[in-house]
Amino acid sequence: MKLKSFFIFAFVALVGSACKESFLDINSNPNVLPTASPSFVFTNALNTTATNLIGNSATGTQPNELGYYWAGQWSQGNGYIINTTIFAYNFTNGDFTYWDAYYDNLEDYQFVINNADANNQKYLKGPAKVMKAMLYQQLVDMYGNIPYTDALKGGAVLAPKFDDQKAVYESLITLLDEAIADLKANPFASAFTGSDIIFKGSVTKWAQFANSLKMKILIRQSRITGRETYIKTEINKIVTEGSGFITGEEVGVGGPSFYLATAGKLNGVYDRWGYDANGAKRALNNFPRPTQFLINSLKAAGDTLRMKRIAYANSGENGTVPGTSILKEVAANYTGTPFGVSSGYLPANTTSLGPSLIVKGEYNRPAILMTASEVQFLLAEAKQRFSDVTLPLTAKAYFEEGIVQSFRVLGANVAGAAAYKGSKIENYDFDASTNKLTAIAIQKWIALTNFSGLEAWTEYRRTNLPVLPQSVQVADNKRPVRFYYPNTESGSNGANVTAQGTIDAFSTRLFWDVD
Description:
Elements: H1 10-14, H2 21-24, H3 38-54, H4 63-70, E1 74-76, H5 84-87, H6 99-115, H7 125-143, H8 165-185, H9 203-220, H10 228-241, E2 251-254, H11 268-274, E3 288-290, H12 292-300, H13 304-310, E4 311-312, E5 352-353, E6 366-370, H14 372-385, H15 395-410, H16 415-418, H17 436-448, H18 453-463, H19 487-492, H20 494-498
Antiparallel strand pairs: 1-3, 2-6, 4-5
Helix pairs in contact: 3-6, 4-18, 6-7, 7-8, 7-9, 8-9, 9-10, 9-14, 14-15, 14-17, 15-17, 17-18
Protein name: SusD/RagB family nutrient-binding outer membrane lipoprotein
InterPro entries: SusD-like_2 (IPR041662), TPR-like_helical_dom_sf (IPR011990)
Signal peptide: 1-20
């Protein structure tokens, strides 16, 4: 693993613009760190995290986009030659190589942690540790065993050993505990709240985000035999700590004070699948299409309020009345695309990414890292599986609030969520649902649509829910369960990659993927 250069975001970051890395790469030696203010590095690191996860017009398929496909939420529009790498699962260790970008980003956060005290910016240590934990969890969820204890040491360790993925998960709980302690001890200096383009210096919200990540890490392991006592103990510690969880809002990078209507400075989602800085529709707007399975499932449950926020009706957005569809927004005008189909579903005849994600002119929405709805479903599963944990509400209450928060973040009228109470609709009405954990998983899958594709795919691997149709391009039942280690790591750290054994992306499951 090589240590790449830091990208100093300095003045432009604080006023809300974004720059390409090549303009800011100041190192001549990639194994020597530059001198920079941790606050500048932290701001750019947050922006880089969003770009690495979500992408923009200059990137290829990033983890969130791939996750939407492999979670069965999005397919490919038929205006393009079918992408067999994604839809026929014809990929190698040269594809989906998110590894280097993630470790580069982790170096940024480690720089902040290492240099915050010396620069009298201690308030950045806690947030940097939270982000470090988030990235490491995502790396585990993509690759399994990864460098952790030997990583981020620059020239001192050029070939870091790999740590067991379960041990990394446990270490992340400890790291988040440290982050919360740092947050409580070091409130933001008012002059530097602008460097925090997520929570504007709110240490309370950072602590809530840390607890929400801890809950995700714990619930990810909930199907593993023998982990119940550990999980319950750690959940009770979260409750005792007292900061709570993210509620009623999203964890989002940037927003109106950061993104600009300038090329290269738009929200990445808008930039990739929506419009350019001049309002011209991107060619890729016709590429991702909500799946037939998703659209038909929502229709079958009468869940049309959310459907109309997840997707535009056939023919897409009305550019003269942004946020509305060209066609009348009735269920009959919403046609999903079968997963992996290569013909018969042209853009004019199918639904496209909806107003919850793209509205012409709304280039400065935050780039979402985690939703309040996801957190509520984590709590619902925790209470349903472990009824004696000290979480104060019932599984049903968390479940119903998860649906409410899903409606809210999509921009649907939240009153529509109440209609499912007592409706007798399977997996919507908690009391009437045959399997409560299945109901939680399926509602979580819906709620993650358009916001957290990597998480949706990860949860699908963990729960096998919902039961998705196989890609039209694939003759058997095999699906990817992980990525290969990238060829870049094999080239620079080959002995340690080889030590992980033979990796089969279709059968070498991660430790939390029990079936």
